[in-house]
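Hi V.,

You were right to ask for the full record rather than a summary. Here it is.
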Amino acid sequence: MTADQRERAALPAESPLRIPAFRRFLLAHLVSATGSAMAPVALAFAVIGQGGGARSLGIVLTANTVPTLVLLLMGGVLADRMSRSRILFLGNLGAGAAQAAVALLVATGTATTFAISVCACLSGASAAFIAPAAQGIATRLVPMEQLQQANALVRVPGNAVKVIGPVIGGFVVSFTGPAWALGWDAVTFAVAALLLLGLRLAGSVPSGDGVVGDLRTGWAGFRSRSWLWSYTAAGTAVVAAWLAGYQLLGPLVADHSYSGARSWGLVQGAFAAGLLAGTVVCLLWKPQRLMLVCVVTSSGIMLPLAALGLELPLIWVLVTAVVAGIGLDVSIVSWSTIMQQQVSDGELGRLSAFNHVGERIAIPGAYLLVAVASAHWSSRQILLVCAAVILVASLANACVRDVYRIRRAG
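Predicted structure:
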């Protein structure tokens, strides 16, 4: 048992905030979120500013996604073998270096689609190691009965910052350009990296089967859980349609049909307000059928895509963004709790990696497909197709029996 685990066991089961290591983890999320909240607006308009459209932005987003897909399984293996705090330290440093490079390119006027794509590759590679390691941090810091509360608390500061971050980011981009917002994001990644390194969490005992053997064992565990692979399969369509619509087409529609960076910043701020409200819901509501909650609430992200596709007034786009944010955050917190309660610590990294790969594997194809389709269809038409894909995939997932079987542990 590590020092953190002994400390955790000695405390009464009241709140994760009583645990110093958890508070450090929480602070790292807050610091990083102050930069990450502005980064999507800045990156989108950095590409648009150098003359790029849907095709250029699609290339950049694809370059960010492909390295994540390629390296995620290795990230899962390492998360089950090595110190997760050290992995998060190195991953945040890599992401910070990538954002610093983009900021420098934009500030000096030398940014091109190719150069931004190279930096996006580095950022995507870092994310491949961050995601599986982060999934298993809470299980090392808090008791099982506090996992949902811990998962919700981790999202509170980040979501709170995201409420005003995109709005500020939109105004910063409008008045000073995207370089300043991207540079700030790089600084916050570096500070968060130092905080996460201070957790000093030891790794699990290696299985002795090697990387290939660990992957085979992880795949067997993933395949044996129908609730896990069915949710992942539905997520393949849902995540691809959401990101292609929201990240790729959203800024372009805002630029053409609304007031550009300012209106898109408001949309992202409204979405973040929904995320924050969803976190509050998770602190107060502890449903028993967590899987069913995941499936139903995650489908709400179709609403802002439909609103943008129908070119509704901005106020209605903001309302749907709030509703989507509430549903998505409830889904994320519930899903993290399910994984942490239903999967052992020694295989959590690998099974999380398989889940992440499954949910992201269609994203590059979706970006490229939208880029090609934009030559023949309007952005509004493609957004409506994306909304329909999310609805159909969610309804199909709701028909799986295990969705109703998985309940809250403890």
